[in-house]
């Protein structure tokens, strides 16, 4: 291949399907939550302010008064927050306040190609959902809170029984409960600050990191090069369908080692935070100590030695980590029929349509509020309206179906087993889909 041809090929694959610029953070090693934010500040060119649409705002003084908590404002300084602003605020109150913080119009076009046209898919659906919510109690459901509390009790109870009875079965149940605790707590860290979000840290992962990688990155830019949740797994797991990101041998190895990756997920994240804090800037908080409450409980409440309590705790965390990774990475996003960066996209860049194109929903768990809560269920609606309690989403299907029909699109569904197979197939996929979503290829 001629030198010029190589240059053209490199420029072709080093492009994002949803933005003008290739994500700067992907040029840095290692990729981290901090490098993602730094890269986004560079790419979004928001001049140290907050960009929403084509205007720049100064939200510095508003951060402490933000109903959702200061974290969301302080973390996103210097970035374009158009997509999270629209999806996190269903009512019009936030928009009505914006003029007070406006500084000036942006001089450059947005980096991202998504649109929020007033009569487009997402804004039409959002208006209908807003009206529906007027008739519902859409604050965190008491049933969801009860389920979450029961799972929290189960983590400690099963762990204690596993030690007292020397039971492997109860140890597995304890790990399972820990996994469910993390997925159920995920429902809460999308919302305004609350005590239940801290329960996520029992898994040794930290909800603060996940508010970045999951809520601000994955939820906004799923399956794209801007999706930090995908990038953090590279080169061990790669879902981008291009030989430039992982060759065939690497992809086969990734399928074989994926169970190991799942089991190590919790440990890798806490170690990364500790190392980063030691060599760069401290990113450890008091709530990182929450993860230690389980081994301390086991040590105090049983006759275990301290070292035995630690060993048993680590084995429970490993089981929980494996199940969390397995459920999370086979929840809705990875299948050859699902849009990934590099695939041909539909001509309408509506943000809501993009969310549907990157998801095939789980059809086999919608009958159970518990399974929806602990298995990332109602995934499409959760992406479209992430701050709503999971137990509210099921009430929004009439509005979703009406809007899908109006815009001649669909909500795709399949079973978890289909997603398990599809994720392995996606890991092995090397060629981009040439037809856009909605074509026969995607049916």
The order of strands across the largest sheet is 1-2-3
Q: Indicate the percent of residues in helices.
A: 40-55%
Radius of gyration: 22 Å
What sort of overall outline do the alpha carbons produce when their principal axes are compared? globular
Broad structural category:
mainly alpha
Task: Give structural attributes.
single chain; 443 residues; mainly alpha; three-stranded antiparallel beta sheet; 5 strands; globular
Describe this structure in words.
There is one protein chain. With 443 residues, the protein is mainly alpha-helical. 51% of the residues lie in helices and 3% in strands. The protein has 19 helices and five strands. The protein has helices at 3-13, 33-44, 70-75, 82-88, 93-97, 121-133, 142-164, 168-189, 207-218, 228-231, 248-279, 293-301, 306-329, 351-357, 369-374, 379-384, 390-393, 397-406, 416-428; strands at 50-52, 55-57, 102-105, 361-362, 413-414. It has a three-stranded antiparallel beta sheet. It has a two-stranded parallel sheet with strand order 4-5. A hairpin with a 2-residue loop joins strand 1 and strand 2. The longest helix is centred in the middle third of the chain and has 32 residues, at 248-279. The chain is globular, with a radius of gyration of 22 Å. The two termini are 37 Å apart. 44% of the residues are buried.
């Amino acid at each position: 291949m001629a030198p010029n041809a190589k240059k053209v090929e490199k420029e072709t694959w080093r492009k994002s399907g949803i933005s003008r610029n290739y994500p700067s953070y992907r040029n840095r090693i290692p990729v981290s939550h901090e490098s993602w934010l730094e890269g986004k500040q560079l790419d979004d060119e928001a001049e140290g302010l907050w960009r929403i649409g084509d205007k720049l705002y100064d939200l510095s003084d508003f951060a402490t008064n933000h109903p959702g908590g200061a974290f969301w404002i302080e973390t996103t300084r210097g970035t374009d927050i158009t997509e999270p602003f629209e999806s996190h605020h269903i009512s019009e109150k936030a928009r009505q306040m914006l003029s007070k913080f406006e500084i000036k119009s942006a001089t450059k076009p947005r980096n991202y190609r998504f649109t929020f046209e007033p009569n487009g898919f997402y804004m039409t659906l959002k208006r209908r959902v807003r009206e529906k919510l007027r008739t519902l109690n859409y604050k965190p459901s008491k049933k969801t809170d009860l389920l979450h509390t029961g799972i929290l009790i189960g983590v400690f109870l099963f762990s204690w029984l596993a030690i007292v009875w020397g039971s492997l079965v109860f140890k597995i149940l304890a790990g399972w409960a820990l996994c469910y605790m993390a997925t159920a707590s995920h429902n809460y860290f999308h919302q305004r600050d609350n005590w239940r979000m801290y329960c996520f840290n029992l898994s040794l992962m930290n909800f603060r990191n996940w508010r970045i990688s999951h809520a601000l990155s994955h939820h906004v830019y799923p399956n794209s090069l801007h999706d930090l949740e995908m990038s953090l797994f590279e080169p061990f797991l790669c879902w981008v369908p291009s030989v430039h990101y992982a060759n065939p041998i690497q992809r086969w190895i990734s399928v074989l080692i994926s169970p190991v990756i799942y089991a190590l997920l919790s440990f890798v994240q806490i170690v990364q935070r500790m190392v980063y804090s030691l060599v760069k800037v401290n990113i450890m908080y008091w709530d990182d100590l929450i993860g230690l409450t389980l081994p301390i409980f086991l040590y105090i409440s049983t006759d275990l030695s301290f070292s035995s309590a630690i060993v048993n705790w680590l084995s429970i965390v490993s089981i929980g980590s494996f199940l969390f990774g397995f459920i999370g990475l086979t929840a809705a996003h990875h299948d050859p029929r699902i849009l990934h960066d590099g695939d041909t996209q539909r001509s309408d860049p509506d943000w809501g349509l993009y969310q549907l194109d990157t998801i095939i929903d789980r059809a086999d768990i919608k009958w159970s509020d518990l399974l929806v809560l602990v298995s990332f269920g109602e995934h499409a609606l959760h992406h479209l309206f992430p701050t709503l309690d999971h137990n509210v989403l099921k009430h929004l299907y009439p509005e979703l179906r009406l809007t899908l029909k109006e815009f001649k699109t669909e909500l795709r569904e399949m079973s978890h087993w289909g997603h398990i197979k599809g994720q392995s197939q996606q890991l092995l996929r090397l060629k981009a889909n040439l037809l856009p979503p909605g074509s026969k290829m995607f049916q």
